[in-house]
């Protein structure tokens, strides 16, 4: 298992593939032990992919301190420097997209091209669903809520018509949550990440991003709405925006998205 000393923590990372360099930044609760991960997806066949567990998550250290999306971006830049990458394409998904925004704003010299998926700018541009408010729910209630947020087409009528598929979705959500459940600091790290997510606000500063940027989202995403993505697009001059016929996890499921994303990065 590869760990590397970055700033004040040891980061768990994986580096695989061939081709142009691509830094992948995962979403809320990201853990490379969850499958499928970025290395199981089409993008890994075209790039040298660097992915990692962020501060407080997965197998990376979980210091009990204040976490911010800007601080997470500083971690990402320090990781790039530690592995010897001067520049890279950057691909941020969901919470990882918030971190990628801060990276592009504060460390533009590290960036080649930027892709943001199902994410939000915060502030006047709109925020993603407040996942920290689910903390008081039982595991079953929380899984049901997350399922319906992930794809707003999962309503009572859909559940009644596809009960087996619905149970499979819930079991996958709960199975992912069980990974590393008893590890020291896991619960605290997750709470600190959600706090950073809650306070993310890059909206007014997105205009400083000059790199080519591909913004994408799902038509039926209840976590990150279309208006938030449109707000990012409006703030970044050199950007394009596209929606796909799916929910929050469109990036896992839409083959057209992978073709579009790979073409975008290879244009650079």
Question: How does this structure look, described?
Answer:
- There is one protein chain.
- With 268 residues, the protein is α/β, with parallel strands linked by helices.
- The chain is built from 9 helices and 8 strands.
- It has an 8-stranded mixed sheet, with helices on both faces.
- A hairpin with a 2-residue loop joins strand 1 (3-6) and strand 2 (9-16).
- Helix 1 packs across helix 2 (95-106).
- The protein is globular, with a radius of gyration of 17 Å.
- The model has no long low-confidence stretch (mean pLDDT 97).
Give the SSE layout.
Elements: E1 3-6, E2 9-16, E3 21-25, E4 48-52, H1 69-83, E5 88-93, H2 95-106, E6 111-117, H3 139-150, H4 156-161, H5 163-178, H6 186-198, E7 213-218, H7 226-235, E8 239-244, H8 250-253, H9 255-266
Parallel strand pairs: 3-4, 3-5, 5-6, 6-7, 7-8
Antiparallel strand pairs: 1-2, 2-4
Q: What about the largest sheet?
A: 8 strands, mixed
Give the neighbour order of strands across the main sheet. 1-2-4-3-5-6-7-8
Please indicate the percent range of residues in DSSP E strands (runs of 2 or more): 15-25%
Radius of gyration: 17 Å
